[in-house]
Amino acid sequence: MLSRIGSTLRRWRRRFSRSEWMAHLLGLSTSESAPSDPGLILIQVDGLAYPQFKRAMAKGRLPFMKRLIKKEHYHLEHLYPGIPTTTPAVQAELFYGERQVVPAFCFLMHETGELGRMYDPEVAALVEKRITAKGRNPLLKGGSCYLSLFRAGTEHGEAHFCPADQGWGPALREASPWKVFLLLLTNAWSLVRTGALIVVEFVLALVDCVRGVIQGQDLMRELMFVPTRVAVTILMRELCTIGVKIDIARGLPIIYVNLLGYDEQAHRRGPRSAFAHWVLKGIDDAIRRIWRAAHASDRRHYDVWIFSDHGQEQTTPYEEHFGRSLGDALSEALSELPAKRSLHRRKSGRGVQLERARLFGSEWMEKMIREDESESPDASSPLALAALGPVAMLYNVDMNGHSRADIARLIVEKASVPLVLYRTDPDDPAAPVHGWWREGAVRLPEDGAKLLGSGHSFPIQTTADMIRLCSHPDAGDFMMYGWCDGQDPPLTFAMENGSHGGVGPNETHAFALMPEDIPPPDPKRGHWRPQELRSTARAYLRGVRPAAVKHRPQRGNTLRVMTYNVHSCRGLDGKLSPQRIARVIARYQPDVVALQELDVMRERSGSLDQAERLARLLAMNVQFHPALHLEEERYGDAILTHLPVRLAKKGILPGPPPGQSGLFNPAADEPRGAVWVEVQHNGQKLHIINTHLGLSRAERLRQVDALLGEEWLGHPDCDGPRILVGDFNTLPSSAECKRLAGHLRDAQVQAPDHNPQGTFFSRMPTLRIDHVYVSPDIKVKGVLVPQTELTRQASDHLPLIVDIELPDGKS
Q1: Going by DSSP bridges, is the β-strand pair 254-259/38-45 parallel, antiparallel, or unpaired?
Q2: What is the pTM of this model?
Q3: How far is it, in rounded angstroms, from Cα 728 to Cα 483?
Q4: How far apart, in whole angstroms, are the C-alpha atoms of residue 412 and residue 409?
Q5: How many contiguous H segments (helices) and E segments (strands) does the chain have?
Q6: What are the strands of the beta sheet with 633-641, ordered from one edge?
Q7: Which residues pair with 480 in a beta bridge?
Q8: Are residues 400 and 326 in the same domain?
Q9: Which of 35, 43, 108, 321 is least surrounded by Cβ atoms within 10 Å, i.e. has the fewest?
Q10: Percentage above 70 pLDDT, the chain
Q11: Is 385 within the bounds of a domain?
């Protein structure tokens, strides 16, 4: 009944949904998937390092993501993005499984011999063409992406605010005026809200501009970054959030969105700056809106994963620190090389901020900031420098009789570059990697730990990636890094106070915020890589759930018992999903779980053996008892456990007294049963009985008497610790519960520092009708009734979880 009411309300809500109307008006296709089919939303918070995430959470900047951890059973994981620590490298590994697809954000393309940046559409297209030529299967096939450098398999019109498809896709650009008017009208509140945010952010940007000028920044550059900041921080975020919600309403299988605001501000004022952390509150709110839309979807069962692609280091611009550009410093340091030594290089001072503004068609801003003439390419010289962020690469160096070690030494000693790496033979990928830093010559991997320092979280992985990167076809003859251990301050070769792309401890330390039942690929290693996010996402979309129960915690002599009425695995949203029930169970990792209202081979639930499916998903043994058996269809209760188990008894309990059949309520005539198993835990025996009592008081009293009688709890074999669990369909104050209390103890009452909580119905759990009763020799250590979005949707009951300690156990 409740699920039917919920489904009806959701259908009516969908009819008046703004996202549904927008999708309809724009003529966007919708998915034909079943409501229980999996969907995935990948939210990338660009540039936010793990330490800065923790800092922002402690300061209250991320209230919703904090709630996900505290209330929705998400867990914060470390993520190593690989080298280079740039968005295109991480996106290529995530979307295609291809590591180190580029050597840096700015590099010399070996096909064209030209310097390119990844925000240039032709460069991004060329790099993606290289990947697809290898036959890689793109992750986003059939889905959509926002602010991605690659299409990643999305169809035409599904890549938004990307270099190859600037703006919000052809659907909006081709819409008729009256459709645009209706869209504006139906989203009036969103427009007002966005407008107010833009005004606030514009004022803050002006304050930031004044502050920058006071600190010595160029006035024209500061003024040009005001509209860019507002566009990236507010307008782009809001448009992407609206777009993602529309795609959720359409039921697309996978949606990727990159939220840029923090990275934008961190580049300008540093990753620790108040302005950068201010933006996180708006990003957190955008994630909240996307998450709620995902969990209200009628077309798919969406999961939301949140992660960052890299962190940022608090840096000082090289030019500001030394009073000259890197190009000028290298020209002087390499004065002994051939006469034609002027550098073909890309001015790094304007950074990536103006490039991001191009996504809104703002090329005019770029024209207003002219390049220094000293930085223009010299076509007569093959020597080239690509410098952006903390990584610079020198190409086509004419050795003029000098060794590579000599040149690396000159760059370190005369140009004051902290670290220079090179291969002894650039034509041999297997040639060893050598380098130079302030203490002299180095060799990798032997000196990797020394170069990265003891405070680096991923020294082994970073060293290995530094070695591989030297063999990249687009890598320079010499790889120059603005940071290595002992370099204070870290340097960047762009005019920015926050930087990434190199090997620093913060830029290589990203985060992943994942649901608790999506365990890391290797718990002992303790971190993810983008490639592992990809493989896990692909498995999730195929319906393969990583079994978190494989990593059950060691609880000593404590045993976790769960009782859960699963309502035939049909949630309040009307979706039939044993997988969702399995996720609820897996999140709390019980040792024994007692389930009521399971369907086995019933037509109404897809002729599926729900007991067997849940046992398989959870890697548990199952004992099922059908209280109702009609030909091939069965309906009843089960006990699942990973412990050694023996079936002791299963059977039907007494029905209503004669003359009290369910004349007006057929469910009152439903047979009721019980299943009794004996489990072994740490060498100790425990008896567990699971039941689902009737609807009438007289029927329940008869059933309680039977359970307390000599065939069940009073049986001679039912000795020692005993637990009676299930859906009793009655409150603790009832005569039935009082009769049970004469022999057993109510676990919710016995638990220390616990106020008994209701379990029905799941949206407003005011009725305490699911119970766990324990024998007096069992100690109750804790009780949990989880109220999360998942548990409130998965069934009309909430699960009841009890941690117990057997009598001979040690605390």
Answers
A1: parallel
A2: 0.86
A3: 65
A4: 5
A5: 27, 33
A6: 621-630, 633-641, 592-600, 558-565, 800-805, 779-784
A7: 392, 420
A8: yes
A9: 321
A10: 81
A11: yes
